[in-house]
Here is the input.
Amino acid sequence: MPSTGAMESPTPERGKPGDCEVIERPNELKRKVKGSSSFNAKMMERAEKVIAEEKVAYLRRIGSQIDQIDGTFGAMRDTGHFDADRLWSLVHDLRSEAGTFGYPMLTQIGGSLCDLLQKLETPQPRDLKVITTHITAMRTVVAQRLEGDDNDIANEVAAALRDMVEGYV
Here is the structure.
C-alpha cells in the first residue's frame, strides 16, 4: 500500500486479563438527587408520573412540529433555497423527545433523516423524495399512534429509510 505521508501507527497489541486497572467513579446522579441517599420505587413512581403528564403535552404538539418540518421543507423546495441546518434542527428537536414519550420509531426515522440532512449540500430531486418519504413516515407514526418498537411494519419502514440514506449518500 502506498504511503499517504501520514504517520502510521502500529496495530496495538491486545492486553491480557489483569493488564488494566479498573477505576470506580462515584455515582454523581445519586449525589445530585435530593431527599434520598438511594434510588427507590417512590422516586421512580414520581418520574413516571411526570413523564405521563408530559406525554399528553408532547402528543398535542408533535403534530404541529411535523407540520413545521413539512412547511419549512416545502418552502425550501419551492424557493430553491435549501437550508439543511435549519431542517436538521427541527427534525432533531422532534426526534430527541420521541423515545422518552414512547415513540422510538420517530427517533429512528428522525435519526435517519438527520443523517441524510448532514450529508446533503445541494439536494437533487431524488433527495427531495427521500426527505418527503421520511416526513410522511413520521406523520404516519403519529397518526397511527405507533408507540413502542414492536410494530413489524413500522420497523421495516424505519429500516428501509435507513438503508435508503446509507445506500446512496
Summary: The helical segments are 28-32, 41-79, 84-98, 104-119, 125-143, 152-168. The mean pLDDT is 81. Residues 40-168 form a domain with the Four Helix Bundle (Hemerythrin (Met), subunit A) fold (CATH 1.20.120).
